[in-house]
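Is this the right way to post structure tokens for a design question? Let me know if I should format differently. Anyway, here goes:
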């Protein structure tokens, strides 16, 4: 019998659910760098920041997808600068810094690139694999922040937003090294926030889960026969959309969250609120191994 999978729902029409002011956009006059901006959560964040008036510098390895995302954002007003580069390469932070400086200097840095693949038991992992996990999930966060932070300090303000994961807040069996890197991103976020708060720079993190992206195509990976399980796994009753992270990012890098720094905001539809508990029906939950009906 061939398996059939769920179809993703249509994309939300607007790139942000927050109202946009045409006269005084929330992020008007701000220059924002977003890494991994071509697709998935990074694209959702880039679209939302652009929609709310930020001038964007977008970085990604996927030239065609980056051009398409940049063209979509240009329709809201300002054309983003698109840099085709690998954030794990040593020259990329300097390249990005120069591009942001040409626009007046980065006020916002979103370190979004990250990947859990390939997964597998720690006992089967290798030092080369650990190095790749470090480079993709933590190394570039340090390098990009190190390159762009001095300008923020010099100008007396800025925002760094790191994209971690719920896996940095809990264990992830089968992917221990990825989980450790994401936990390190959360710890780095908190420590750096304390270091640079006096300069007007805020540092926060997002912890996504279960968001439909090319890396984790949630709907297309869910067998149609278990469609009713989505609401049992995710308290919010659906998988996340990149726009959910765009809205959270707009909050965290705008003055709406002026007194929030060092925080990690879970954007997970509630999956970490009661881990190990599953809905059985409209009124009952279970944490026991049993049929969910
Ligand atoms: N999707 C989820 O449910 C989920 C859950 C937890 C954490 N996250 C985190 O959110 C972030 C984004 O995840 P996603 O699911 O949108 O990923 P994705 O793989 O769907 O998209 C990543 C984007 O980054 C680009 N990219 C990859 N490596 C790059 C590199 N070295 N240099 C420049 N660009 C690069 C890709 O081309 C792509 O456009 C990651 O840090 C990931 O760990 C996602």
């Amino acid at each position: 019998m061939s398996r059939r999978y769920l179809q993703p729902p249509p994309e939300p029409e607007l790139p942000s659910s927050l109202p946009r002011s045409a006269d005084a956009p929330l992020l008007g006059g701000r220059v924002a760098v977003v890494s991994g901006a071509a697709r998935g959560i990074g694209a959702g964040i880039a679209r939302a920041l652009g929609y709310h008036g930020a001038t964007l510098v977008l970085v990604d390895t996927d030239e065609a997808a980056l051009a398409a995302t940049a063209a979509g954002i240009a329709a809201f007003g300002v054309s983003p600068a698109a840099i085709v580069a690998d954030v794990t390469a040593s020259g990329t932070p300097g390249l990005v810094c120069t591009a942001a400086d040409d626009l007046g200097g980065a006020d916002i840095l979103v370190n979004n690139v990250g990947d859990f693949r390939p997964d597998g038991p720690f006992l089967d992992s290798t030092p080369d694999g650990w190095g790749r996990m470090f480079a993709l999930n933590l190394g570039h966060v340090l390098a990009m922040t190190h390159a762009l932070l001095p300008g923020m300090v010099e100008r007396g303000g800025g925002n760094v937003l790191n994209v971690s994961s719920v896996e940095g807040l809990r264990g992830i069996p089968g992917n221990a090294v990825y989980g450790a890197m994401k936990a390190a991103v959360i710890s780095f976020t908190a420590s750096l926030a304390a270091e640079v708060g006096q300069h007007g720079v805020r540092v926060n993190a997002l912890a996504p889960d279960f968001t439909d992206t090319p890396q984790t195509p949630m709907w297309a990976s869910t067998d149609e026969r278990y469609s009713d399980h989505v609401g049992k796994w995710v308290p919010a009753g659906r998988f996340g959309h990149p726009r959910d992270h765009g809205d959270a990012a707009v909050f965290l890098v705008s003055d709406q969250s002026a007194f929030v720094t060092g925080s990690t905001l879970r954007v997970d539809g509630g999956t970490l609120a009661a881990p190990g508990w599953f809905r059985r029906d409209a009124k009952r939950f279970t944490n026991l191994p049993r049929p969910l009906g």
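Format looks fine. Someone answered above. Worth noting: Residues 35-36, 38-42, 59-62, 65, 86-88, 112-114, 163, 165, 208-211, 213-216 surround nicotinamide-adenine-dinucleotide (CB under 6 Å). The beta strands are 31-35, 55-60, 81-84, 108-111, 158-163, 201-208, 264-267, 278-279, 285-286.
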